[in-house]
Write a structure and sequence with these properties.
Keywords: Cytoplasm, Ribosome biogenesis. By secondary structure, the protein is an alpha+beta fold. It is built from six helices and three strands. The relative contact order is 0.13.
Length: 148
Amino acid sequence: MSRHIRQKVDGPSQRQLRVGEELRRALAAIFERRELRDPLLSTVPITVTEARLTPDLRHATFFVTPLGGRSADDIIAALVRARAYLRHRLAELVNLKFAPNLSFRLDTSFEEAGRIANLLHSPAVARDLGDDDEAPPPAASTPGKDTE
């Protein structure tokens, strides 16, 4: 019998998270230093919110958000055009056996958080939460005491 039992893991491994964070920081540094020649990418501040890697570390997906959400689709298209240069720069900055293939997606988590916050502050939710506060408290009884 083997001493090492492999369990199925649903989320990313520790290695994927660690390498993803290194790649995210390196890509953010490239954007911060304005190393890209594309006028769209060099004028709009871009935030890299997350990097997800495949288990073999060969493919990386970066979630990005342009400041103010301006021209998000154009930013993604420009990042796809600059993919080869960005991959080359990441290979120089992060010591990996293979430079991962890059893909970019617009991060919509901020919009989703705003939508949830608006729902929670809606009058219908406030009304539902208000009903719970008006319910009478349960009667407190002490065990072992007889009431007369």
